[in-house]
Amino acid sequence: MKIIVIGKSGQLAWELSQLIPPEHEIVCLGRNDIALQSVTAITECLQQQKAGGVINASAYTAVDKAESDVDNAYALNANAVGNLAQACKTLAVAFVHISTDFVFHGDKGVPYLPDDEINPLGVYGASKAQGEQLITKLYPERSCIIRTSWVYSTHGNNFVKTMLHLMRTKPELGVISDQIGSPTYAKGLAKACMASLANAVTGIHHYTDTGVASWFDFAVAIQRIGFELGLLDKIIPIKPITTEQYPTPAKRPNYSVLDKSSLTNALPELTFSHWQAELHTMMTALKAEKS
Ligand SMILES: NC(=O)c1ccc[n+]([C@@H]2O[C@H](COP(=O)([O-])OP(=O)(O)OC[C@H]3O[C@@H](n4cnc5c(N)ncnc54)[C@H](OP(=O)(O)O)[C@@H]3O)[C@@H](O)[C@H]2O)c1
To answer: What is the CA(59)–ligand 1 centre distance, in A?
Structure first.
């Protein structure tokens, strides 16, 4: 099957491009290769590419900027997603789309199930929620929505790289300890997307690495592994702080752990790893890329 990945330069798209599935070909298209604002242009492009399946890894992911750039956030996270679903329906090809833990409010206290009520706190979450709703309305029969959280990769910008930079340049750090979620290495997420497409999984599911953490826990682990691998040459004090002490334009859920059991049931052979093991794997790869 020829799989078209939308979003060429993002973290997930890059990890998808690194997979070499034996019976599939992967082609990544960037914003200059496909006009996501037009169903006709998308349909023609996918037809020309002889797409056998589509994975949408593009998104407006700047959570804080989205609060003041609402139209652009909705254009990519909602309208373009609806257009992709419509084009996939016209061509009868399977569609895998990635969504976010930020569709949830964060007050549940136990892991969110795929069919739990959504109630986003900000524009990013609301626009992603609308993208989900458009897919469910337009093309439920061959679409799969995978919600994930706290994504990082060796490629692109993310919390791990930001922390490593700050740990090299600051005397101490304060990191939020009252937001709880699950860090996720994009490499495993890429495998989950491929497996969902190859096995014709439909509906809404969750994929993250296992275990839970606060951003503070995540930062402490980054420093410990960074020092152990020689990516950092010193240890600095890291203090836990509250969300109130670090105000941001967008509100974020306090608790956004996702229950993964529906995907485990749909794909029994898919393996999940603990976030600390995946973080070690990613940081080892980061070190290899630097040397
Ligand atoms: N990062 C996270 O922590 C996180 C958490 C939960 C869910 N997710 C979801 O996971 C998926 C993958 O995220 P990611 O971290 O890999 O994202 P990312 O690294 O921010 O990449 C986003 C991609 O979207 C594309 N894009 C941005 N603006 C565009 C536009 N106007 N037109 C067309 N393409 C545009 C970019 O394309 P160009 O190549 O043109 O720049 C880039 O390839 C997204 O659906 C995201 O919502 C991410």
So the answer is: 4
Rg of the chain taking only CA atoms, in angstroms: 19
CA of 48 to the centre of ligand 1 (A): 24
Q: Which domains does the chain have, with CATH numbers?
A: 2-156+185-210+257-272 (3.40.50.720)
**pTM summary value:** 0.96
Task: Mark whether 124 is an active-site residue.
Answer: yes
pLDDT at 23: 79
Pick out the chain residues at pLDDT < 50.
none
Distance CA 142, CA 146 (A): 13
* Residues paired with residue 2 on neighbouring β-strands, in sequence order: 25
The pLDDT of residue 29 is 96
Ligand 1 binding residues, C-beta < 6 A: 7-13, 30-31, 36, 57-61, 76, 98, 100-101, 128, 148-151, 156
Residue 21: the pLDDT is 73
